[in-house]
Specification:
Elements lengths: L3 E13 L2 E7 L13 E6 L15 H9 L8 E11 L4 E7 L7 H7 L6 E5 L14 E7 L3 H8 L5 E7 L11 E6 L7 H9 L7 E8 H14 L7 E7 L11 H12 L8
Parallel strand pairs: 7-8, 7-10, 8-9, 10-11
Antiparallel strand pairs: 1-2, 1-6, 2-5, 3-4, 3-6, 4-5
Helix pairs in contact: 4-5
Length: 274
């Protein structure tokens, strides 16, 4: 499948009060090989302009440099998302958008008014970013509503999981396989319920690995607990900050963001199950 292309919206529906599921079709999606936690970049055009894509190429860094070379007034906004579902027969994929409270960023603003026929650009999913799943006796998964698409794919592939998912309230729950503990904020600080639940969790005997995703500072606190208090090896914890409180992906990375990125790049071997 070509790493870049156009996506056309064929359906839009609310799956929860705060989650919009958008179905896209596009060239090559019918041949897309599935794998858990399958990520891609969506490119949102500036208002009133068509999507301008950089030339396709095998080198992602060279592609990114050509993306940055597009004049600012024409350059699409790029955001990362996870494939929620796929229909190879229709060459279609589903992507879920969480409508965060507060001022809307470009992706949230687009999703809140998305309509059939609109066109976005994409980079990926790229098999180069495929990660092996854990072989540990237990896989602990923890995240917020932005992690649900990836969690759905992981839980469908791994049956030795214990998952904790924090959402705004009961209306934001979605059907997921396996052992899932739903945590409702109900007005509490984002991440507080998740941290409390993971810190108090009694995990089964045997080797444990973890998969963490969601708001960056919460993911960072969870990882510190699992490595510092629980004694998990750093290499046994897969972690991704999908979003940052009070910051967007266009804002400069914080020192914590840079430290996380350096550590992830330093461990490119994937999961360690022992």
């Amino acid at each position: 499948m070509k790493p870049t292309g156009l996506l056309e919206v064929t359906a839009v529906r609310r799956v929860t009060p705060r989650t919009v599921r958008v179905t896209f079709t596009g060239d090559g999606l019918g041949e897309l090989e599935p794998w858990p936690d399958q990520q891609l970049k969506l490119l949102f055009p500036p208002p009133g302009r068509p999507v301008r894509l950089p030339p396709a190429g095998d080198d992602v860094m060279r592609w990114y440099q050509t993306y940055l070379a597009i004049p600012a007034e024409e350059r699409p906004v790029m955001r990362s998302y996870t494939v929620r579902g796929r229909d190879p027969g229709r060459a279609a994929i589903d992507v879920d958008f969480v409508l965060h409270a507060g001022p809307a960023g470009p992706a949230t603003a687009w999703a809140s008014r998305a309509a059939v026929g609109e066109v976005l650009g994409r980079y990926g999913p790229d098999p180069a970013y495929r990660r092996s799943l854990s072989t540990a006796d237990t896989l602990l998964c923890a995240g917020d509503e932005t992690a649900i698409p990836a969690l759905a794919s992981i839980l469908s592939e791994v049956d030795n999981t214990v998952a904790f998912v924090e959402v705004a309230d009961a209306a934001e729950e979605q059907p997921l396989p396996g052992e899932v503990h739903w945590l409702h904020r109900n007005g509490a600080e984002h991440g507080s319920r998740l941290l409390e639940a993971v810190r108090g969790a009694a995990l089964p005997a045997g080797s444990v690995a973890a998969w963490l995703a969601g708001e960056a500072s919460t993911v960072r606190a969870l990882r510190r607990h699992l490595v510092g208090d629980r004694g998990l090896a750093k290499s046994a914890v897969e972690f991704t900050g999908y979003w940052r409180r009070s910051l967007t992906q266009d804002d400069a990375p914080t020192p914590e963001d840079l430290a996380d990125a350096a550590e992830k790049l330093g461990d490119s071997t994937g999961w360690k199950g022992s």
